[in-house]
Amino acid sequence: MGENLEIGSQAPDFEAETYGAEKVRLSDFYSKGTVALYFYPRDNTPGCTKEACSLRDAEEELMSLGVQVLGVSTDGVKSHENFRNKFSLNFPLLSDKSREIVDLYGVRSKFDSARRLTFLIEKGGRIAHIWKKVKTSSHAEEITEKVRELGL
């Protein structure tokens, strides 16, 4: 299914586990504003750390634009918790060990992890933009510029 996702498509809903056995459902955010759903290969790797820290450092600006960041990788909850604590990340990291979400979004890599992509999902769940190439150190700027450009 995921390979057919494009701008204007409805974002597939899912539920995933984050720290403390908390469950997060994507559709719970649809009424709150825009979601930056970003997929990344692995916790604690250089590119993934740069990307996560870029998003962490832009929290105030992203929140002022009504953007909720959700990170997804195939790492487990404990790995996510360590990654979050080590870098003081201020947004949920969702575990997709079963690879259901990466398959739903068509982002499974040849290494059986997630490819680095971001889906910008507007209120109501429509995909407003897809980044297939991400600049890890300035991804938050890419997101804020696009949200402003689209008037989300």
Shape: globular
Low-pLDDT sequence parts: none
Give the SSE string.
EEEHHEHEHEEH
Number of helices in the DSSP assignment? 5
CATH class, anyone? Alpha Beta
Percent helix among the residues? 25-40%
- How many runs of DSSP E, i.e. beta strands? 7
Structure description:
The protein is an alpha/beta fold and 152 residues long. The chain has one domain (2-150): Glutaredoxin (3-Layer(aba) Sandwich), CATH 3.40.30. Helix content is 30%, strand content 21%. It has 5 helices and 7 strands. It has helices at residues 46-57, 59-64, 77-87, 100-104, 139-150, and strands at residues 15-17, 23-25, 34-39, 67-73, 93-95, 117-121, 127-131. The strands form 2 sheets. The chain has a 5-stranded mixed sheet with strand order 5-4-3-6-7. Strand 4, helix 3 (77-87) and strand 5 form a beta-alpha-beta unit. The longest helix is centred in the middle third of the chain and has 12 residues, at 46-57. The model has no long low-confidence stretch (mean pLDDT 92).
Question: What topology emerges from the helices and strands here?
Answer:
Layout: E1 15-17, E2 23-25, E3 34-39, H1 46-57, H2 59-64, E4 67-73, H3 77-87, E5 93-95, H4 100-104, E6 117-121, E7 127-131, H5 139-150
Parallel strand pairs: 3-4, 4-5
Antiparallel strand pairs: 1-2, 3-6, 6-7
